[in-house]
Specification:
This protein is mostly beta strands. The chain contains four helices and 29 strands. It is 6% helix and 34% strand. Strand 19, helix 3 and strand 20 form a beta-alpha-beta unit. It comes from Papaver nudicaule.
Amino acid sequence: MLYRHGIRQLRNGWADGPAYVTQCPIQTGQSYVYNFTIVGQRGTLWWHAHVSWLRSTLYGPIVILPKRNVPYPFPKPDKEAVPIIFGEWFNRDTEAIINQAMMTGGGPNVSDAYTFNGLPGPLYNCSAQDTFRLKVKPGKTYLLRLINAALNDELFFSIANHTLTIVDVDAVYVKPFTTETLLLTPGQTSNVLLKTKPHFPSATFLMLARPYATSGPGTFDNTTAAAILEYEHPTSKKNKTTSNTKAFPVFRPTLPEINDTSFATKFSNKLRSLASTRFPATVPKKINKRFFFTVGLGTNPCPKNQTCQGPTNTTKFAASVNNVSFTMPTTALLQSHFFNQSKGVYTTDFPTNPLFPFNYTGTAPNNTLVSHGTKVVVLPYNTQVELVMQDTSILGAESHPLHLHGFNFYVVGSGFGNYDSKNDPAKFNLVDPVERNTVGVPAGGWVAIRFLADNPGVWFMHCHLEVHTSWGLKMAWIVLDGKLPNQKLPPPPSDLPKC
């Protein structure tokens, strides 16, 4: 199954893509044509496989240009560079890696390298020739489209001796600001402006990407991918690039420390919607439904007569939302909902708040076991939703990039420690909060989002760290039809895959 990450799929969940949520998987030898219309979106999104860990290799960019004769809300770049996709390289079959991890209950093997457009670069052994080169001309402004397609890691990105101007995140324009380093969680995209130096510099500028990781229990790939920003040589008769870079000095950017939460927080706080007449920030103000979700790790008991590799040899790693570890159905949720055949497939009793409150970022409870179920939240059409997602420190605090299908949302607040429902809402930004489709829940903290439930169907919400998703950190929303014909979900296409 293929998913167009960030495409809203208005009234068209049949083309969304997550297996067993909106449709059944496309079987070997079969085909399915995705028909969808992109409405009101422009910028950079991406597509990827949405079955198990197949996303590790099956992905690509989606570039949505503005309508003809509609200018950018920032100075027009001289040229658009090829999209840059950050990925992970595994020497082993990723399906075998996650299957082994699910069997033993331990953390999966980490990747062997990070990549720029599939190439790891010169900082790894034996890959100096496998280096992505971005060729530029002096004194020009380039639009770079950046995508983090890594399975499990947030990534810092920087170009030596150059600054970047952030103009867009998740295909939504933001108030421009300059930075030497940016941070992308898995699933996020960003458009940035790169202004090259006015004269040809006799140097090689490295572009680096390496992980941002907090002190959770999981392991991660602590390596650095590199690419080269290469200026065209002015003396070349045909403007070909020079191949003799060894004689030039090599400049390397200084990235934040791997656990630099201060930088990550400051960077995220700089992101603001344009909130202009042309690009308004339509933040929901009259909230109808409020939800408080805890997200984090827990455990499952180890099967009898088996030694596991979880936190103890008698437990397996698990993950949950409000202590419910999502059980994937064997029939697609959207089909079951549309045909009123939910019995035995899912229940509508997903908890709106934790059933057993505790000190979420303090001393962990003795019982770390999670519950299991295929539970959903049902929302009437046009419900204005506020959702607070709270990280827990049950097995160590970790950042969780949460992605919501079918919607953009506004990030109205965030903080560290336990969310305070009495005092924290007074600090919410309801004027120009950033609009996204994927947001990182801070390690040992919380994030508050708001969205308007104006898209009927069944919509998946899950952590975009594939290991946490595999362990159950996911759930689904059902948005009911509205009263008008254009507020209802149409019937499925005739060639929809069957289970």
